[in-house]
Each structure stands twice: as structure tokens, then as C-alpha cells.
Design a protein that fits this description.
The chain is about 45% helix and about 15% strand. By secondary structure, the protein is of the alpha+beta class. It has a single domain, classed as Glutaredoxin (3-Layer(aba) Sandwich). It has a 4-stranded mixed beta sheet with strand order 2-1-3-4. The chain starts with a helix and ends in a 6-residue tail after the last helix. It is found in: Cytoplasm.
């Protein structure tokens, strides 16, 4: 959990992902299209990926990926991120975290 917290607060936007996950690809594309330079951690390619996955599950991420942190705070998975995007709150979260300017 400590490593997840440290990584999650290391950049304005952090995405825990798996390279083979289609929803992860969708979320990464969304942030890229918005102009966010997110830190993407592919946990299936990390030697300690299983530990990260267990820590994400303990934090309430179910499924464990994608798990999106903005400004060090857990936003959630694909459903939560898309809901924020559709209701217009995602850009404000990103602006407040310093991930985008406008």
C-alpha cells in the first residue's frame, strides 16, 4: 500500500494499468486526448506487479485496473473516470491537480 501511495502522489495523474486490458487502453487514450501527460504504470510488466495489484484491491479498486489517481487521490476505475468525463468534472479535477492549464 505504501508503494501505491508513493507512486500515486508522484505525478499529477497516475494510471495503474495492464498492457493487455482494453479498458486501460481506453482510459489512457482519454487522458492523452485531453492533453494529460500521465504516469502510466503497467503492473503486468512490473516485477512487483502482484503486490501492486493486491494493494490496489485493498484500496477499493475492483477490478484493480485501470486505477486512476489525480492529485494523489484515487478517482477510481474506468466507470468513475468516464462518469467524471461525461458530467464535466474531470477537467476541473485535472486543472486543480495541475495536469492541464485550461
Amino acid at each position: 500500500m505504501e508503494r501505491v501511495a508513493r507512486l500515486a502522489s508522484s505525478k499529477a495523474v497516475v494510471i495503474f494499468s495492464k498492457s493487455t486490458c482494453c479498458m486501460c487502453t481506453t482510459i489512457k487514450s482519454l487522458f492523452s486526448d485531453i492533453g494529460v501527460n500521465a504516469l502510466v504504470l503497467e503492473i503486468d510488466q512490473d516485477p512487483k506487479g502482484r503486490e501492486l495489484e493486491r494493494a490496489l484491491l485493498r484500496k477499493g479498486c475492483n477490478p484493480s485496473v485501470p486505477a486512476v489517481f489525480i492529485g494523489g487521490e484515487l478517482i477510481g476505475g474506468a466507470n468513475e473516470v468516464m462518469a467524471c468525463h461525461l458530467n464535466g468534472s474531470l477537467r476541473l479535477l485535472l486543472k486543480n491537480a495541475g495536469a492541464i492549464w485550461l
